[in-house]
């Protein structure tokens, strides 16, 4: 792939609707406390179940309406984006760091390869969400616990891909030459092998953020994620599910946010993968 083709792909990656959508949600998460028009936990029972501003009988001050306690839905969604994006990014960072390290060591040293891969096989035998549910049931649900659990349970995809890449790279001429002149294994892994595996790692990381956001929303929906008094998209969905027939907006809008963010991340992940895949179509 020529530089011109790669430059064109970078433009397609960043100049598109999914990227703009993701940037908007990141801005909402970063500056949510300043953007939110109301306190997300402020109750006003006189305005409970107020529909969105464009519907009949609405309160014009609440653009997306209110929930069963009269809390402003727009403010709760904006503040909830902080929880979802923080959990997604932090869990991705923990699992990426852990999985890349294990993959590097497993692919380079045959003596510990079987140990780590068997541990990975055991973990793959359990669905991630089921494993997270079991751990949270023991340690309790909180934002920090949720981040750590999703981070620790998400290392396997990184480790398997990195291990495969390292396994093929360790026999290359530049690694053999480095060993011949006495370069230490630690430097070979850090300076020579790691830069060559960053492309697949970053691709996995994009999808891992989306998976972590879905996992957080699912666990919060079940009441095992962040505390129920913390606004998050999963908690808002859970609170609004029993009012779907009469007050559909309580669940529809946070659900729509989850779909938009996850879909945008997945589309960007696909395009990011195409940039680093020389075999992909240039059309």
List the helices and strands and how they pair.
Blueprint: H1 3-14, H2 17-30, H3 32-35, H4 73-108, H5 110-124, H6 128-139, H7 143-152, H8 156-169, H9 173-180, H10 185-193, H11 198-221, H12 233-240, H13 249-275
Describe this structure in words.
With 283 residues, the protein is an all-alpha fold. The protein has helices spanning 3-14, 17-30, 32-35, 73-108, 110-124, 128-139, 143-152, 156-169, 173-180, 185-193, 198-221, 233-240, 249-275. It is built from 13 helices and no strands. The protein is elongated and about 80 Å long. The model has no long low-confidence stretch (mean pLDDT 86).
Short structural description:
The chain is mainly α.
Features:
283 residues; single chain; mainly alpha; 0% strand; 13 helices
Distance between the termini: 12 Å
The SSE order reads HHHHHHHHHHHHH
> What's the mean pLDDT score?
86
- Oligomerization status of the protein chains: single chain
Biggest sheet architecture? none
Q: How much strand content do the residues show?
A: under 5%
Structural class: mainly alpha
Question: Poorly predicted ranges (pLDDT <50, ≥5 residues)?
Answer: none
Helical content stands at 55-70%
Task: Please give the count of helices.
Answer: 13
What sort of overall outline do the alpha carbons produce when their principal axes are compared? Answer: elongated
Count of beta strands: 0
Radius of gyration, whole Å: 23 Å
């Amino acid at each position: 792939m020529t530089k011109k083709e790669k430059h064109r792909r970078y433009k397609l990656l960043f100049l598109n609707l999914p990227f703009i959508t993701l940037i908007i949600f990141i801005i909402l998460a970063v500056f949510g406390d300043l953007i939110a028009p109301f306190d997300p936990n402020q109750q006003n029972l006189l305005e409970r179940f107020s529909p969105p501003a464009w519907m009949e009988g609405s309160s014009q001050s609440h653009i997306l309406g209110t929930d069963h306690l009269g809390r402003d839905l727009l403010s709760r969604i904006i503040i909830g984006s902080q929880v979802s994006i923080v959990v997604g990014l932090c869990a991705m960072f923990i699992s990426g760091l852990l999985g890349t390290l294990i993959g590097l060591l497993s692919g380079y040293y045959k003596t510990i390869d079987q140990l780590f891969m068997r541990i990975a096989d055991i973990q793959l035998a359990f669905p991630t969400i089921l494993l997270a549910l079991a751990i949270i049931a023991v340690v309790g649900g909180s934002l920090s616990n949720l981040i750590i659990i999703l981070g620790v349970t998400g290392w396997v995809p990184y480790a398997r891909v990195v291990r495969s890449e390292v396994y093929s790279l360790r026999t290359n001429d530049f690694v053999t030459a480095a060993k011949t002149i006495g370069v230490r294994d630690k430097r070979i892994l850090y300076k020579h092998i790691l830069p060559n595996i960053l492309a697949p790692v970053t691709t996995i990381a994009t999808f891992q953020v989306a998976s972590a956001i879905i996992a957080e929303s699912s666990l919060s929906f079940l009441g095992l994620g962040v505390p129920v008094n913390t606004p998050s998209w999963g908690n808002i969905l859970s609170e609004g599910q029993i009012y779907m027939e009469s007050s559909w907006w309580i669940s529809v809008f946070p659900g729509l946010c989850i779909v938009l963010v996850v879909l945008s991340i997945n589309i960007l992940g696909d395009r990011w993968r195409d940039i680093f895949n020389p075999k992909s179509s240039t059309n």
